[in-house]
Amino acid sequence: MGSRLWMAGLATLLPCGCVLCGALGRDPLCPPCRAQFCGAATCRCPACAEPLADAAGAQPCGRCLARRPAYDATVAAVSYAMPLDRLVLELKFGGRLAHARLFAGLLADAVRAAPALVAPELLCPVPLAPGRLAERGFNQALEMARPLGRLLNIAVAPRLAQRVQETSAQSRLRGGARQANIAHVFAVPERAAVAGRHIGIVDDVMSSGQTLQELAAVLKRHGATRVTNLVFARTPPHR
Q: Secretion signal: which residues (predicted)?
């Protein structure tokens, strides 16, 4: 207890630099950068979080209306664009784990602000395959899910789902190759942990949505009543 208080006091005495502009302050993101890059609310499809025209309101986009995804809703904190995309790369490939706490805080704000969103009962970080986890040393989705769970008072289940096959990085693939790459790679070891529950899938970036689609479908097959994606960044429609 004493050490935590000491660290909290030290943090107030030693300001940090804003991760975007370097301005000194007590928060990792200074108020001007937060307002400029994270403050403007984007009207998004409630199902897949694709940006929509303001007039569309809370209606799903045409793609989700034509073919409803396995997941029921998606909340995205920001768009995957400069300069925030750099922070995602620094976390995933540079080991800047402090960014995961920043992402979790911004995502928690987005969840609280989402209209009529039903909060999940359990958080499931997108799992990494053992080889990829050993290479990277951490799972960025889990690093986000832990502080997000504390902020939202939702339990985190790191082993709720498993990735049972090694795959190529989705970011290197396009079109149908993404879907084929991610097919049949997830498993749920214990159906009882999923059945009858609303599961929140946590990830850093949602691009095509194929990974989240596949994991949501597996959770639904094991009895999940609802699946909500909670992602830090959503790529633009052309990606």
A: none
The b/e string for 166-194 (b: 16+ C-beta within 10 A; e otherwise) is ebeebeebeeeebeebbeebbebeeeebb
pTM score, whole prediction = 0.86
Which of 19-50 are b and which e, b meaning 16 or more Cβ less than 10 Å from the residue's Cβ? Answer: bbeeeeeeebbbeebbeebbeeeeebbbbbbb
Q: What is the pLDDT of residues 104-155, one digit of tens each?
A: 999 999 999 998 899 999 999 999 988 889 999 999 999 999 999 999 999 9
pLDDT value for 6: 43
Q: Can you list the positions of beta strands (E) in the chain? A: 16-17, 24-25, 73-79, 122-125, 155-156, 162-163, 186-187, 198-206, 226-234
Per-residue pLDDT, 238 = 57
| Domain count across the chain | 2
pLDDT for the residue 182: 63
Looking at 83-196, list the stretches that DSSP marks H as alpha helix, in order from N- to C-terminal side.
84-94, 98-113, 130-136, 140-152, 176-182
Task: Give the pLDDT score at 159.
Answer: 95
- Tell me: do 19 and 114 sit in the same domain: no
The answer as to whether 239 is a domain residue is no
Residue 164 domain-assigned (yes or no): yes
